[in-house]
Specification:
The complex is a heterotetramer, with 2 copies of chain A and 2 copies of chain B. Chain A is an alpha+beta fold. Chain A has helices at residues 3-7, 10-17, 66-79, 84-98, 125-140, and strands at 31-37, 42-51, 54-63. Helix content of chain A is 41%, strand content 19%. The two termini of chain B are 42 Å apart. Classes of the chains: A alpha+beta, B alpha/beta. The structure holds pyridoxal-5'-phosphate (2 copies). One pyridoxal-5'-phosphate sits between chains B (86-88, 116, 118-119, 164, 168, 193, 195-196, 216, 218, 227, 356) and C (246, 269-270).
């Protein structure tokens, strides 16, 4: 498997073609964050619903490349049901992994581990990070 | 034109596997220009104009000599060549000085959806501040600016026409000479965005009769951080400076100051000395090869590639009739950002995005495009590698499920 | 600080007979900086930000890494460091954006006669356009700005204070930290012209608490054509851009545009890439030597020279108490332009004129001055040669009949 | 005689110390031209009175270095009494000499020949030219 095939893993393509939890809701209990990367046109909105210390729901909407769009879907599936503490930990671990920083390999990234391949493409790390950064912001807004 | 020999002037291309197709963003730099810049830093490094000692005097000569070289290159007078940070700064200077002082409520400013942001946004700002109207030339179905369509929008209210000479997305050459003539008949002033023109074709400002013309060095084998604003001398000497400070004034009193004439009126502060000297060298380099030869060569490559690409299924080209070396296209169903990573894997450098020209991207009704642009150092082998890569990319993305 | 070793970094100084005393105009450039610039041209040459391919990505990293280096150097945040053409452009940006949008009729703007034209003229323009009042801090008999004198002119009407940190003619260090504190108590914003400060002393913008601070690379071993505007982030993000175009916007529609936040909001067009990368290298070079060491060294040379010069008859020094490496003087009865030619004959590079600071020259009541300025590469031998030359020059001019 | 002594020739110093025809007149029969070189502060005004095709008078005033000020004085002494044609020829010859261009050595430059030494100091050529250029302009204004 060459680098490029490792980038476009089946799980990523699956989420790209069949995004889960897509579409925003009009509910002010959700925290909404919109991030744009004007240089490439990626444009992502993430919503999270927190209740009693855990992530009840995550929604997303936007345009961008396959890496960007699929990662929003993977994010939603990975984090729904987690506690805020766990979600934060997974997010940090994921972002550290992408940026080739040290990260706790014990933390279970579930499908998000598929984005390991992005590390070989530094110019695409932003694409894989943008929705996770937006999600991080939704937590901060609390 | 001996492209094999030319390639040798570009050290980056020593990597024979590299296919550089992003000249429309920035051209590569020949060794001659790099050496000239380096010479300034290693053998001088001193300031210009204000020094009476020998090293400064010689550096000033080199510096002003570059201005003459560039003036001759575009058929302008020495005093009509203003050094700026780049085309964007030049285009803004026209809008901030000429525009802000001459546009009043109800005036019309003609632009187009084919503009680079740096050509249209300065005028959008003037229009907003002065309550003037921004008027868009309707584009043809191909996305071109034509004389006919221009005639539909020019009126007695038109005070400024701000159009590109060559589009950085579509590669079309606009009929600016005819447009300028008509605009002048209506009493309007014309600012030409020539950032993609001067690097690729012979441009003579007196023949065009344009009022202002802007371009950057970095797209034409020159250094980064330096560009030109050409303006007609009588316009320039009647314009207000937009930056105030050292070197642009005659006499300074506590509450009064008098300004120099063009070009110094618009050049405050220590100038980009190394860049100016390097730019002069770049112009000499291009003149040596001949601008007509360059256009012919890059157009030939573009034609060759477009003809081959048309035979590949699953590729959409947006500007088959491009007049220069620029091709805008997409692999159907594949976001250009994904595609460009594939090409990068083949060591083909290409751009994906809106190319600072969102209006034409929106006009095309796509989120973004790929753009390949050819220049004097590109070869038929580059084209073949590129076409091969396009095919493989399309197959790859089909395979992984796009 | 090993000056002998440092000199070796400056190829121009291979000419051992050269005594370069014009650093206040531009410093010489070390080989490390020249190489870094050259590396960009030879090994890259491509554009930043918009490229997703590897070469562009790596260049963007280098480029933005320079911003971080410079931010750390002055104690600023990454987003607070805006790249400009130079200090003059930075100072103008503050006046054109913050000034034009916040100054109204009757407001007061405090400046001084000790300013460089690039510090005072942008505000003279704002004052004229907005019918505001330009107020000059009275200088002491030595020509200094003091806290006491500043207190005499600050009022509730003061909206902006625009002062230099180090004078390029007198070499005085102004008490800007205290002035900023007082200005803030009166609700005024302070723009510091640090073109002669940052190259010569450690500057921490958070400690100073200045609102804006401007400087140029070419006076601190960096490339030409690049400077910095530091601004407090909340000020910057509330300021209108003054140039509009590529890279400074988010979304562009036919009649609407939204802007990015600082720093990109103020950086339209292809940036001065080579220069930014070279500037980062220059800052590393100076940090390595240590700014405190540099100031101590140049001050020591200045003291040495002033003490010797005082013993020479027929010489007038205007700033014996200079706090840095700058000496302004004249040979009595000899126009500085005549004098400087004599020094040039001894291969001593020095400046004669008004140094883009006519107000202080008029304040001194002289037509012009000579200026010698010392930096990290100057030695005691340079000083001795200089003093010797001063003596011989005075004798020569006496002899030929001045 | 080294270059610098050749620059500050006695005749130059004499005109510097004792300028001839100095001071402007308030007479509209005179053509007046003012030139500034802001980079060094030289600031010269030249007046010429032309009558019947010849130079009846030249006046000057200004500030600047010795080369600049003396050359205005030399100019006035050299050109008063010449015809406009001769004055133009002398001016061209002088300016060509300074800028190291070919020039007609037959033309009698009188005291102005003393400025030959300036050629060795390219940075000072402007100083020696400025009043002559101003004079040239007074002729053009006719
Ligand atoms: C005190 C001071 N301010 C501002 C400037 C302007 O800097 P620059 O010419 O690099 O724009 C200078 C240098 O010329 C200076 O010495
Ligand atoms: C058509 C056109 N206009 C203007 C510009 C702006 O030039 P620069 O980025 O050098 O300021 C560009 C390039 O980016 C361009 O392609």
């Amino acid at each position: 498997m060459n680098n490029l095939e490792a980038l476009y893993r089946q799980v990523i393509m699956d989420h790209y073609k069949n995004p889960r939890n897509k579409g925003l809701v009009n509910d002010e209990k959700y925290k909404t964050v919109h991030i744009k990367n004007p240089s490439c046109g990626d444009d992502i909105t993430i919503q999270s619903l927190i209740d009693n210390g855990s992530i009840k729901d995550v929604r997303h909407e936007g345009t961008g490349c396959s890496i960007c769009c699929s990662s929003a879907s993977v994010l939603s599936e990975t984090l729904i049901g987690k506690t805020v503490v766990e979600a934060n930990q997974i997010t940090q671990t994921y972002l550290n992994m992408l940026s080739n920083k040290e990260y706790d390999e014990e933390v279970e990234l579930e499908d998000a581990i598929a984005y390991q391949g992005v590390r070989k493409f530094p110019a695409r790390v932003k694409c894989a990070s943008i929705s996770w950064k937006a999600f991080e912001e939704t937590l901060k807004e609390e | 034109m001996d492209v094999k020999m030319i390639k040798k002037d570009f050290p980056v291309l020593n990597d024979n596997s590299l296919v550089y197709l992003d000249t429309a963003a920035s051209s590569l730099k020949p060794i001659q220009v790099a050496n000239k810049v380096n010479e300034y830093y290693l053998e001088s490094g001193v300031n210009v104009h204000r020094g009476v000692y020998n090293l400064s005097y010689k550096t000033t000569e080199l510096y002003e000599n570059s201005r003459q070289i560039i003036a001759d290159f575009i058929g302008a007078k020495f005093e009509e060549v203003i050094f700026t940070r780049g085309a964007s700064a030049s285009l803004n200077l026209v809008a901030s000085s000429y525009g802000m002082d001459n546009i009043v409520e109800g005036d019309e400013i003609i632009v187009s959806e084919l503009e680079h942001h740096s050509s249209v946004l300065p005028w959008m700002n003037v229009a907003k501040k002065k309550k003037a109207k921004l008027v868009y030339v309707p584009l043809t179905s191909e996305g071109r600016i034509t004389v006919e369509n221009f005639k539909k929008v020019i009126t007695k209210k038109t005070k400024v026409v701000a159009l590109n000479y060559v589009s950085n997305v579509m590669g079309y050459i606009a009929p600016v000479k005819e447009i300028i003539k008509i605009a002048h008949d209506f009493g309007a002033v014309v600012s030409v965005d020539a950032a993609q023109a001067v690097p690729h074709k012979a441009v003579d400002v007196k023949e065009l009769d344009c009022d202002f013309l802007s371009f950057s060095a970095h797209k034409m084998c020159g250094p980064s951080g330096i560009g030109i604003l050409y303006g007609k001398l009588d316009l320039l000497n009647n314009m207000e400076p937009i930056e105030f400070g050292g070197d642009m004034n005659d006499n300074v009193d506590l509450f009064e100051v008098s300004y120099k004439d063009s070009p110094y009126r618009f050049e405050t502060g220590t100038p980009p000395i190394a860049q100016v000297i390097g730019f002069g060298e770049a112009v000499k380099y291009l003149e040596n090869i001949g601008l007509d030869n360059i256009l012919e060569h890059e157009f030939m490559l573009k034609e060759y590639v477009v003809n081959k690409m048309k035979q590949i299924k699953g590729i959409t080209i947006y500007n088959e009739s491009s007049d220069t070396g620029i091709i805008a296209f997409n692999i159907d169903g594949v976001h250009p950002h994904d595609a460009v990573t594939y090409f990068d894997g083949d060591n083909i450098s290409m751009r994906a995005g809106h190319h600072c020209a969102q209006l034409i991207i929106k006009w095309l009704k796509v989120p973004a495009t790929l753009r390949a642009s050819f220049y004097l150092y590109n070869t038929i082998e580059d084209c073949d590698k590129f076409i091969e890569s396009v095919k493989k990319a399309r197959d790859f993305f089909t395979e992984v499920g796009f």
